[in-house]
Amino acid sequence: MSSDTTNAVHPAGPLGPAVLDAGAGPDLRAEGLRLAYDSRVVVDGLDVAIPPGRITAIVGANACGKSTLLRALARLLAPRAGTVRLDGRSVQSIPTRELARRLGILPQSPVAPEGLTVIDLVGRGRSPHQTWWRQWSTSDEQAVHEALRATAMTDLAHRAVDELSGGQRQRAWIAMAVAQETPVLLLDEPTTYLDLAHQIDVLDLITDLNRHENRTVVMVLHDLNQACRYADHVIAMKSGRIVAQGGPGDVITARTVEEVFGLRCQVAQDPVSGTPMIIPIGRHHDDASEPVAATGTAG
Ligand SMILES: Nc1ncnc2c1ncn2[C@@H]1O[C@H](COP(=O)(O)OP(=O)(O)O)[C@@H](O)[C@H]1O
Ligand SMILES: [Mg+2]
Fold this sequence. Notes:
Radius of gyration: 19 Å
CATH class: Alpha Beta
Keywords: ATP-binding, Nucleotide-binding
Shape: globular
CATH architecture: 3-Layer(aba) Sandwich
Low-confidence stretches: 1-22
CATH superfamily: P-loop containing nucleotide triphosphate hydrolases
Order of helices and strands: EEEHEEHEHHHEHEHEEHHEE
Protein name: ABC transporter ATP-binding protein
CATH topology: Rossmann fold
Structural class: alpha/beta
Bound molecules: adenosine-5'-diphosphate, magnesium ion
């Protein structure tokens, strides 16, 4: 996508009116990435292009490099080789503040400073939008309250983040990322610690942000069925490589699941969404029945 569409997809409020031109949006891609910790190379020679204006889910077994890739896309980890580009520019060359207005990340296990309240944490999401001549404003105030409302955190706004339950804390961090109002949102396991109802709330919220504000979302998810339901594009990783990517119906097949997770399964059709639904087999059950035909539908 051309870079001049980037600013056009950044509307006023976190859940503001539906925006224009679905499918347009920031162009985030990486070429020839080598990512390592000390001498340990985790990812090598990886190319990836994130579909603009869409929701992408990254799936794969523990320790395959999902968080490492996401952190590199967000410039939290400098590549040993290769380049991450946002609208054609290397992210290494984009000033920090500008990058923070365009790309937000929820890391896997964020830690808030001791005693910091929820509302102050969420308010920090606004700092990239402030300048010496324009400090806290009513639009910041609005964005914070809207983000608290959208994540059902209003009643907990004045509690300390480090005193919340895991699920409440996760929602506080999501609220911060929402308040940051970036066209690109990277989320590392946003549903971890959440009970099922809150998992669905968060995924619905992410879908709203995508559909109504055209935000490009990349999220690491463990639940393959949720990935199939909520993502337009699925990237399956194994040992630092992308082994399959595309629509959920093309990627989440019994074969890919076996290759990526070493798990035998059947793929049925989710009765609610029509997307692929994984039924694991395991060692204590027989795979006697005829496999249910996998669906090719992605919606
Ligand atoms: N800070 C770190 N220092 C050293 N090794 C790390 C660090 N973070 C991750 N790793 C290693 O990199 C590999 C990929 O980790 P990660 O990207 O976190 O996997 P995933 O998110 O897919 O579970 C793992 O082998 C992990 O042990
Ligand atoms: Mg991880």
